[in-house]
Amino acid sequence: MTPYPTSRCTGCPLNRRNFLLRGSAAAAGTLGILAAPRWLGAAETTGKTRIRILYALHAAEQPGPDWPNKGFDFKPVMERINSTLTRECAGFEFVPTLASGEAQAGKILDEDRAAGNIDGYLVYQMNAWNRVVQTMASSGKPVLFADFQFGGSGGFLVFTAEFLRHRVPNVGFVASSNINDLIQAVQCFQLVKQGGTVADFVAATAQVRRKSTPPPGNLTAKPDALKCLPVAECLGRLKESKLLAVRDQTAGTEASIAGITVQRIPFAALNEAWAAADKDESRAVAERWQQAAEKVEGVTRETLEASAAMYLGMKKLLQQHGASGITVNCLGGFYGNHIHAYPCLGFHQLNNEALVGGCECDVRSAATMLIGSTLTQGRPGYISDPVIDTAKRQIIYAHCVASNRAFGPQGETNPFQILTHSEDRQGASVRSLLPTGYLTTTLEFDQERQEILFHRAHAVANDPDDRACRTKLCAEPVGDIEKLFAEWDAWGWHRVTFYGDLKEPVHALADALGWKVLEEA
What is the rounded CA–CA span in Å between residue 113 and residue 382? Predict the structure, then answer.
């Protein structure tokens, strides 16, 4: 498996997408058709359409932190998919197999070529970054690529966008929480068995996907008294702003973004600030969080106080450096024993205060948070790992950090819960039950491209699913949900969401910067 390219998203040498691999290579090496549940035996050759299902994942039971979460048991999920397809797809024969990456996928493909009895491939992305589908696409046979949502969604979106950009002719895809949509897409394999082309197969899967996507709902939004800064004033403030980046043990400066100074500081400085935080003040902050939260579950008081000390330490660093925001390689620091508390609750609190706490040392997204917050006079950005569900015509913005003051420090609060960090069930993080009924704007500002990625959506729900990150804001995109599959390979997985309709001010800001706006929906 090739871990997620750090230049596209987190900038972290060790992040939650690839940390698992450091400790589980031996376990992953045993996957494939070994240690098989009863349904993994090869089927006998028949006149049926014979499809190999490849589940792209680390292991049948997840040994380490990653989406969906440590300890997740994939076996019942795979059993359900296999039995449903067998029951509902008459005239088909399915050969399920596990594969952790390119090496195993290549071995399976070689064996299939030698046997000559496989008509196509269903690749199910169960964990995010396991590269299996690329190998099967090289077969030239029809390939259906499916997302196990809140498990494989990052890789699914990035890999699908790569296929679309390079016009790979034999790969169709399905991104739906409704298994009936998968069944209909699988049945498209019969076109090739009956003499059609792979292009016919791909076109049929796209038609099935579009037909099963609900029409746009009522996008009338609740009133929102958004007041943005004049563009000139916003740009002036950005030029006076500074963002701290804690990536590793190095210090220095990085390229500015829209005028924002980016200063790199080492883990040691953050850890020292955490250790020096006043214990009484830490207890008081922890007490306020505990009293304000709708519930606290799985998190000890000791962990809450350590998180409060991390918040106080980060805020002290902001004051010392005259900075407005900080972004931390959180899991790299924590797992590497460089820091000793997750910064999630600290980020939550900073964002409530019109400052910026950004995840995973993703400098571009943290800068986007700072730009949007400045433009909207204090509204926090919500950095997320999105999931697309065509069955509900939704994009779900998922992360373990979010503000509960979506309209700024003086705005109304929404309920929030304090839970463990989802992927490893450790530390403390936030599930924010964000307001619904409002229009949101999602952005990424890229200095190198001099482009702003942009889409709007109508917030409709908060998904309580225990898989993946704790906060999951569900929204219906304004525009073409099919178009929304196209940019993940070029822009990475993260997006930053703000409450309010920022179309006009963002276009005005782009004009003043001399940048372009790329509308992705």
Answer: 47
- How do strand 495-499 and strand 439-446 relate by DSSP bridges? antiparallel
Measured on CA atoms in the order 360, 363, 365, 367, is the torsion positive or negative?
A: positive
Note whether residue 218 is domain-resident: no
Query: Which residue segment(s) compose the domain that 53 sits in?
Result: 6-212
E strands in 248-371: 252-257, 260-264, 295-296, 325-328, 356-359
Tokens 């003051």 correspond to 405
Whether pTM exceeds 0.85:
yes
User: pLDDT digits over 445-454, tens only?
Assistant: 999 999 999 9
Return the CATH number at 492. 3.20.14
pLDDT tens digits, one per residue of 134-163: 999 999 999 999 999 999 999 999 999 999
Q: What pLDDT shows up at residue 1?
A: 32
The Cα–Cα gap between 503 and 481 comes to: 18
What is the radius of gyration, based on Cα positions, of the chain? Answer: 23
374 and 508 co-located in one domain:
yes
Residue 518 has pLDDT above 60, yes or no: yes
Q: What spatial distance separates the first Cα and last Cα of the chain, rounded to whole Å?
A: 31
Give the whole-angstrom CA distance, residue 445 versus residue 456: 15
* Residue labelled with tokens 């609060």: 413
CA dist 510 and 446 (Å) reads 11
**CB contact set of 50 (below 8 Å; sequence gap of 6+):** 43, 92, 93, 95, 117, 118, 119
Local structure of 55: helix, strand or coil: strand
Q: Is 217 inside a domain boundary?
A: no
